[in-house]
Amino acid sequence: MPDIDDIRTGRHCVFAMHVHLVFVTKFRHNVFADRHLTRMEAIMRDVCADFEAELIEFNGANNHVHLLVYYPPKMAVTRLVNSLKGVSSRRLRQEFPDLVHHYYQSNKLWSGSYFAGSVGGAPLTVVKQYIEQQNRPG
User: Fold this and answer.
1) Which site among 2, 13, 27, 100 is 20 to 30 Å from 124 CA-CA?
2) 83 Cβ partners below 8 Å, 6+ apart?
3) Using alpha carbons only, what angle is made at residue 72 by residues 124 and 86, rounded to the nearest 5 degrees?
4) pTM for the complete prediction?
5) Contact, 23 vs 110, CB < 8 A?
């Protein structure tokens, strides 16, 4: 069960939803240095805020990044992903001219694919067991 501080309320719901996202660079090329990743974190934090989401954790390497995002149920993860990748690509290209040669085919920094995994407070086995143990009306 999520910590009480992690539970938020919407107009018609109570929620605690997190997603783990991984984005890789086009062709897995080594692109990022620490300064790029530091700026990217700030950019992605702003994009999340625009979606009423929160970037909880961010880290990366020279060819990929990991994000842990807390998001509301009204938000489609695919819309958030498209915005995170699009805005970060555009802003990094503008702010770091040294990255321009890493943009391939139609100025794309990121691979077209991504990983998204739901993350919760309890392992699936615990949730499954909890549901199995609920009493059915008899």
Assistant:
1) 13
2) 47, 50, 51
3) 105
4) 0.84
5) yes
**DSSP string spanning 32-44?**
--HHHHHHHHHHH
Quote the tokens at residue 70: 């807390």
Cα–Cα distance list, 34 to 20, 65, 73, 137 (Å): 21, 12, 33, 57
Candidates 8, 20, 38; CA nearest to 81 is 20
The CATH classification number of 4-132 equals 3.30.70.1290
Residue 29's identity, in one-letter code, is H
Distances (CA, A) of 53 to 47, 50, 69, 104, 126: 8, 7, 7, 30, 26
C-alpha span between 17 and 131 (Å, rounded):
18
- Crossing angle of helices 34-50/77-95, nearest 10°? 140
Q: Where are the domains of the chain?
A: 4-132
Question: Residue 10, SS3?
Answer: coil
CB-based contacts of 28, cutoff 8 Å, min separation 6 = 63, 64, 111
